[in-house]
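Input.
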Amino acid sequence: MDDASSESQEDKLIAWIERHIGKVLRIEPQARWRAAWIVDVERDGEVAPLYVKGGRETHAMTPLRLEGAALGILHANGIKAPFQYGYCEEADAIVMERLDGQSRLEGVADIAARDRIVDQYVAAMVAFHALDPALFIAAGFAMSDDPADLRLTQFKRVETMYLSRKNESAPTPEPCTAFLRRWIHRNVPPGAIKPAFITGDAFQMLYRDDGLVAVMDLEMACIGDPLFDLACIRMRDLSEKTGTAATITRRYAELSGTTVDLTALRFHLVAFAAASALLISDVMVNPTPQTDYFEYFVYYHGSLRIALEAMAEAMAVTLDPFLEPEPTTNADSVHLRMLAHAIERIPASGDMERYQRGKAEAETAYLARRARFGGALDRADRADLLAILSDAPADADEAEAALEAFVQSAGPEWDERLLRLFHRRAMRQCFLADIPQNLRLKRFLRERIAPLY
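Output.
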């Protein structure tokens, strides 16, 4: 958002906080990809630390008002979650207590300490899965009485939003997501399930070295299959080291007293990773000047890769290893190198300035890598396409549209061949995004998902 809208939103927040909580002593925006503020308030003669969470650029499936209500329900039922002061409708933000802690598990150097924190989160997850869904329905959440819909609650919410946005404007061909969507709908595991409140994006938390501080970020929360939450761990582990999926799955079964259906768990990883890509797809083609585009680019292509590898596991297909191309020279290389030097010299004294400069550095580094390897990878994509559609148009956009049309009519007998094609394409994009500025998410782009046993 621009400065004017940011100031206007802050004014609304200050007015709401002073009306409901106390005098604002400090309000500072966080340097991150979504709207958030650190606030100190004078309340009853003491300073109360607050955290304010605003809307995100990509669409949140759960309105902030409901997210705050869900956190409040967890807190009221003895599950570690921040106390909620309320929802500020004027600024579309939830105001909660500010808790001390870290949010990314790679900050835990000691593996035993990390495992203890994760174990405490698993125990919290078992506890909120056991809560009566009626508590959340009363707060405004919906619940289907169809078992198949419950399996797909989260995915269908995302898909519905994705299709509505795709149809609102000139659609960009996305043959890979079309393939994933068709496979997911054809392969829903049968059988009844016990509906539960789920985060829809589990293992987001605050922690300290001595353990879990709070369950956080319920912007994808809904009522559905609890195994969807458990499936999240394998994808989460690639963006922050959370420990082995096999150990966590066994611990969940032990604490919940249930037998985990591994077929359903594998299916849900496909659905979870595909949903992640669907959520990001619009900002991939319609970014704003404020968009952290490279961050979304990484999560989009990494999510597609993970969904395809999870599908291969579910289908018992062994995928081919990725062969890195040889670099080539490009006329833009010198200009991109000079642009990178110019960006390095831009002063950045504060967190926000460093964040903005970092975004520019990442985009420039990606374009330089694209200049070195893109030609070879584009030729490989074209060869793969012609192996499926021998009469594919020469124009790239028209060729993608033709492939999408083919995917939408192809039967299950094409699944393995299309899986291999789309996985090779996803790996090429992940390879291009593997730049030094993206070291934190290197595993998300390149490392295979951990086994379940």
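The first helix runs from residue 3 to 20.
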